[in-house]
Amino acid sequence: MLQQPPAQPGMREDAVDTPALIVDLDAFEANLDHMAGLVAAAGVRLRPHAKTHKSPVVAHLQAARGAVGQCVQKVGEAEVLAWGGVPDILVSNEVVDPAKLARLAALARIARIGLCADDPRGVDAAAAAAADAGVRLRVLVEIDAGGGRCGAAPGPDATALARRIAASPHLIFGGIQAYHGLAQHLRTPEERAAAVGAAVERAGSVVEDLRRHGLACEVVTGAGTGSFALEAASGVFTELQAGSYVFMDADYARNQAPPPFRQALFVLAGVMSAPRPGTAVVDAGHKAVAIDSGLPLVSGRQDVRYVAASDEHGQLALDPGAEPLALGQRLRLVPGHCDPTVDRHDWYVGVRRGRVERLWPVAARGAMA
Amino acid sequence: MLQQPPAQPGMREDAVDTPALIVDLDAFEANLDHMAGLVAAAGVRLRPHAKTHKSPVVAHLQAARGAVGQCVQKVGEAEVLAWGGVPDILVSNEVVDPAKLARLAALARIARIGLCADDPRGVDAAAAAAADAGVRLRVLVEIDAGGGRCGAAPGPDATALARRIAASPHLIFGGIQAYHGLAQHLRTPEERAAAVGAAVERAGSVVEDLRRHGLACEVVTGAGTGSFALEAASGVFTELQAGSYVFMDADYARNQAPPPFRQALFVLAGVMSAPRPGTAVVDAGHKAVAIDSGLPLVSGRQDVRYVAASDEHGQLALDPGAEPLALGQRLRLVPGHCDPTVDRHDWYVGVRRGRVERLWPVAARGAMA
Questions:
Q1: Which residue, of B248, B276, B306, is where some domain finishes?
Q2: Is the same domain home to A163 and A293?
Q3: pLDDT tens-place string over residues A193-211
Q4: Pairs of residues, one from chain A and one from chain B, whose beta carbons lie less than 8 Å apart
Q5: What residues of A are in contact with residue B149 (Cβ under 8 Å)?
Q6: Residue A327 and residue B144: Cβ atoms within 8 Å?
Q7: Which InterPro entries match (chains A, B) (predicted)?
Q8: Contacts of B328 in chain A (CB under 8 A)
Q9: Are residues B234 and B280 in the same domain?
Q10: Is 70 exceeded by the pLDDT of residue B1?
């Protein structure tokens, strides 16, 4: 259910109710601008991933800086964005359920809607839904870029899918998607370059196959915050799907020194118990901050570590000689993983220079269907 | 934000939109009845933990079977329950923030409200909020039962806290809480018995200390689904806080053979991609099913394993010779951990004999402040 916002505009950050999802607006806007500059210089398009932010407000801020549209993973996310005025949305994922496809076809009346397919039955189901609604849906062929999750194998399978899409009067062939999720989180630049290099080769081979069959592939889309510079420079990718760059997290920051973007997302936590010297407990456990990619860091306090998360508690360990923490004191936590952390919260609290400037709903929170 | 329900009453389960949170109503009701019988036989009271279910509907079903009230971890959860007609609520957690305490004091006008303290400043803050609102708040002393998280040390600290509460005209001394969270998930019965035995000893010593100071300790509350039979038989605990028993999960089921309760909670997932033999991908990743206590199991399919979770994808591995999975096919996943899985969803879909019988909102979902 929608929760009440933990803050009001004008409030000081240390008066915000905890836990709360804080956006440092200076850092966030710097990230938006920096990425806009990078993609412009590289001559590629940016279609940021809304799985990170789940907010039409953020989507519009990205569009104002040149983003050509948004990616989503779920039909429910597409609905929230389209209903919030986002005009161009790609579901960067397979959709095969007829009820979900009917919802997408309905959305195609108010926005440009694309989706992915990696199986001829998915293509046929999308065509049936589009025919039934009297619209045309844009379908991209997802190829397995090397991650071994979804995606058709490059070669005859991918080519046949593209031709099947192009042959349908109810579909538009939208290009190919080659997203390498695993590559985003590889630890060294060399590992990421090798993984993305292989993905570029696979994508390029499919583009060439299609050209030989007379099918122009105007869009090759993929990439994430961990790898986008490689895809941008590849000469094969035309569109980048990076999402996390707007907020960043501890996991992405570990992989690049210095990180190319600023940490803009925090979970504000309050100290609720400090029964023994050297320890304290904050009111943000893993229901408030995702731990799938590691525990959060404590921002600005290198002498305090978040050492264990239970559902509603975060256990802190203070280094010897650390300044003690007071009951009620606020701490900013840097999430280990931004996307699922955002998805736990109903509200963004936008802060600048210590004061709450804006509240935004996490409008597609929980839009998992 | 509140999402649309993934089902309607009367629908067949295999038509429910995915992912969806499924309650097997026969199993759920059997669990409610079984626990009610166990606590009645043991002569203790049951105050189930709403951190699991986050639903006034479930709370009322538990009350109808004799539960004396509910536990919550968060003020926001207390609000949702009180506004939903639950008359007796214990925040089984420290609350030290003045704004949160003011919200609790306001609730004390429509429900019997308790909270925990492990620090004299917490007691004073609760007294100030109660005085300001013109109500009395019930405060329990939380002792460290052995888990080393929150809680005052048994001995002079705990006694002084109890006396401080009892001395305030704005507070009621409500007893002690001795919850051993770590003990719930120890793997063997012997380990759990040793941990709870130590907790019982600590709690008993505090009760005795208080008696010597002329303070009757009418409530000793604690225990969870992993240990409650031990506390129930202790002669020291008067009230059990078990919550997960209503739903169960893969982690609790691993610890007791046969499990004393039935698996009643599932995440229904749909197969969205199956590009290579022996693998498939479902549309429920860790945004839909919590993985902090291990990956989900695939119910009824011992030949299929859920082997990796990304944000929105679950990777399945099929054993050699396994019956293939069809695109669009539904699978019931058994969550590794029920509480945070529930907290990802907006709706319970109550199913009996293959059909949707009821929808309940997860009313306190995201009530983390």
A1: B248
A2: no
A3: 999 999 999 999 999 999 9
A4: 201
A5: 273, 281, 310, 313, 315
A6: no
A7: Ala_racemase_N, D-amino_acid_metab_enzyme, D-ser_dehydrat-like_dom, D-ser_dehydrat-like_sf, PLP-binding_barrel
A8: 96-97
A9: no
A10: no
Domain assignment present for A78: yes
* Contact criterion met (CB < 8 Å) for A96 and B311: no
Distance from CA of A263 to the nearest CA of B (A): 20
Measured CA to CA in angstroms, residue B42 lies from A47, B30, B174, B226, B232 at distances of 61, 18, 22, 16, 6
Please judge whether A122 and B327 are an interchain contact, meaning their C-beta atoms are less than 8 angstroms apart. yes
| pLDDT 10s digits, B97-155 | 999 999 999 999 999 999 999 999 999 999 999 999 999 999 999 999 998 999 999 99
CA dist., res. A249 & res. B232, Å (int): 44
- Mean pLDDT in chain A? 96
Q: Are residues B216 and B106 in the same domain?
A: yes
Which residue from B281, B257, B351, B258 is spatially nearest to B8, judged by alpha carbons?
A: B351
Of all residues in chain B, the one with the smallest CA distance to A94 is: B272
Measured between CA atoms, the residue of chain A closest to residue B5 is A369
Residues of B in contact with A80 (CB under 8 A): 1
Residues B139 and B232 in one domain: yes
Same domain, B55 and B193: yes
Q: What six digits make up the tokens of A119?
A: 């199986």
Contact B74 A312 (CB under 8 A): yes
Q: Evaluate whether residue B368 is within a structural domain.
A: no
Q: Tell which of A248, A278, A311 closes a domain.
A: A248
| Record: contact B292-A291, CB cut-off 8 A | yes
The verdict on whether omega for the bond into residue A258 sits within 30 degrees of 0, i.e. cis, is yes
Domains of chain A: total:
2
Considering all CA atoms of chain A, what is the largest pairwise distance in Å, rounded to the nearest integer? 72
B241 vs A contacts (CB less than 8 Å): none
Q: Say if residues B248 and B99 touch (Cβ distance below 8 Å).
A: no
- Residues A127, A129: Cα–Cα separation, whole Å: 5
Task: Take residue A336 and report the two structure tokens written for it.
Answer: 């280990």
H helix or E strand, kind and range, residue B117: strand B112-117
Residues A105 and A74 in one domain: yes
- Interchain pair A149, B313: CB under 8 A: yes
Give me the domain span that covers residue A341.
13-21+259-361
pLDDT tens track for B245-273: 999 999 988 888 888 999 999 999 999 99
Residues of B in contact with A362 (CB under 8 A): 1
Q: How far apart (Å, rounded) are the C-alpha atoms in residues B105 and B128?
A: 10
Q: State whether A198 and A51 are in the same domain.
A: yes
B85 Ramachandran zone, left/alpha/beta (phi>0; psi -120 to 50): left
pLDDT at A281: 98
Contact A136, A171 (CB under 8 A): yes
- Does residue A39 fall inside a structural domain? no
Which strands, in side-by-side order, build the sheet including A70-72? A45-46, A239-240, A220-222, A171-177, A137-142, A112-117, A88-94, A70-72
Nearest to B346 among A118, A291, A366 (CB): A366
Report the C-alpha gap between A129 and B74 in whole angstroms: 44
CATH number, domain containing residue B333: 2.40.37.20
Q: Which of A21, A83, A287 has the most B C-beta neighbours within 10 Å, making it the best mutation to test the interface with B?
A: A287
Tell me how far the alpha carbon of residue B226 is from its chain's centroid: 12
Q: Hey, what's the torsion of the CAs at A351, A355, A360, A362, to 10 degrees?
A: 60
Chain B contact set for A92 (CB, 8 A): none
Residue in chain B nearest A151 by alpha carbon: B275
Q: Cβ–Cβ of A364/B80 closer than 8 Å? A: no
Antiparallel, parallel or unpaired: β A279-282 and A265-273: antiparallel
Give yes or no: residues A108 and A179 share one domain: yes
A119: CATH: 3.20.20.10
User: B202 - beta bridge partners?
Assistant: none
